[in-house]
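We close this part of the discussion by returning to an individual protein. The sequence in question and its structure tokens are set out directly beneath this paragraph:
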Amino acid sequence: MQTGAITSYIDVAQVTLYAFWAFFAGLILYLRREDKREGYPLVSDIPYEQGIIGFPGIPAPKTFLLPHGGEAHAPRVEAPESYAAVPSANWPGAPLVPTGNPMIDGVGAAAYALRSDEPDLTWEDAKPKIVPLRVASEYSLATEDPELIGWSVVGADGVVAGTIVDAWIDRSEAMLRYVEVALIAPLPARTVLLPIGFADLKRKYKEVRVFAILGAQFGDVPGLRHPDTVSLREEDRISAYYAGGLLYATPERAEPLL
């Protein structure tokens, strides 16, 4: 036998290769089981295919300690989802047609994830990450940037919805995330957040123009549970509302271009 051979047919190199194949197959199996901790069993439009799991099966539950206290288990039993929409056709996977206000109901382009209803925290001192400047007084807008406080906010139809009263910054990234808008009559007397990505700054007119939604639709922007913090779920709902407006703000936007 040659040097390194275990038998006349198997040597160390072969054993190493087969061990690697076995390890890699086990790794794939493990990862496929782990990625079924969320979203399984799958729900199908076909009645006899409810509870699709597939191979491999769902792993045993794990307990996760949450940063705001408490525990979460995965996988876990989740209540069936309900939504204000109906299929556009009688076949599986047909597009959903909203039956209410899709921007509020979270349907289609305005859908959002049910993330934690607690604010995201900084790594250093576990403080709320995104807060207004009135709370994070150690921060300020850059001197070369426009002073947004006092600017008007105008919807896609040219209607003034309100005035900017504060800016919300990300403590971890040191960047502007939202502007806080105080609505004016005839809209409800409250403040709403506008993601800076949907704001078109017009320095000449001291205006922020928002193409995503109309002026009157600012009245339905999802609000905050606490005036000085925004939770992860609230962030998703707010962003989804403006994003949904790109398709649902007017009937014409939901129609084909041609």
Residues 125 and 165 are 27 Å apart (CA to CA). The helical segments are 12-34, 102-105, 232-248.
